[in-house]
Amino acid sequence: MHSLSGMDTTISRTAPLIDPFARAISYLRVSVTDRCDFRCVYCMSENMTFLPKKELLTLEELDRMCSTFIRMGVEKLRITGGEPLVRRDIMTFFRAMTRHLEAGALKELTLTTNGSQLQRFATDLRDAGVRRVNVSLDTLDEKKFAEITRWGRLPQVLKGIDAAQAAGLRVKINAVALKGFNEDELFDLQEWCASRDMDLTFIEVMPMGDLGNEDRLDQYWSLKDLRARLAERFTLIDLAERTGGPARYVQLQETGQKIGFITPLTHNFCESCNRVRLTCTGELYMCLGQEDMADLRAPLRASTDDAMLEDAIRAAIERKPKGHDFDYSRQKVDGQVSRHMSHTGG
Ligand code: SAM
Ligand code: SF4
Predict the structure, then answer these.
(1) What is the pTM assigned to this prediction?
(2) Is ligand 2 within 6 A of the CB of residue 83?
């Protein structure tokens, strides 16, 4: 078993993390970098200023942080970013998490990626214990792909997806639903995923960050509408499956395929929320839609044992709010939060 810090190869559990609304926190999403090799228009501006390296948690610190959460009951880790696979030596971190999978404390280690580096890393990820990856892909049209990601190239991502499947990773495609952009590709995306045995989830665009000149409300394509269009062609069977997050799933009776809808704006999923998000600088966001956060980097760096960190985590979870404040209903973006998705990690 390998630990980056050379310590703590076994996990002795402490009392689980329960928030004031009796929700157990079992899912941690960790952003390991704010950097990315793409500049998706709904996520970043073209000229991003990234954080100085010293602000970021080191790989050792990420290991300590995640190991502490696992000791406190986190069973699922999703690594995200920015683009997680552009962080230098990130495989060292994935391999360090393998020990928690082997010990049974961690049930799932997974990631969300733009797919650009999957060709390089798919086998290593599989060897580290990753079994599923989410790949973000909004269009199958090369020109449109270049337009929406600004810097991305579709063939590279498609090769990454091939490599992931060849390595035995289960791939789920996440597509942001964008009015006037990929509306006409709904069935192309659905058929392409079915032909490759991949699940597909649509995400409603969220009022995050700053799109510069583009108006986010103009891009808003309601998943209610998307679902209705799917229902014109297929029989949709609602699946009971709940993830503790904003995703709902249906099965297409005719193909057996699973389609997900992530509607953080129009659905109240907060009552079952089991997750918190850690940024690459060690800030813990207890709710995606709220500004409140707790700095965990200071207690982590203040001491080499994890007692202060554990106290800070418990104090943060005590402040987890009941729900979020997003609201598009009056055609203006209420409850808008100013940070970018690349900061909190989507
Ligand atoms: N770079 C990786 C990727 O693209 O998958 C991981 C980080 S990215 C911030 C995580 C997810 O957030 C992606 O699926 C992306 O499409 C989504 N996302 C980014 N900005 C968004 C927004 N404003 N509304 C909805 N989803 C967004
Ligand atoms: Fe990068 Fe992912 Fe944001 Fe696109 S959505 S800019 S790939 S972090």
Answers:
(1) 0.91
(2) yes
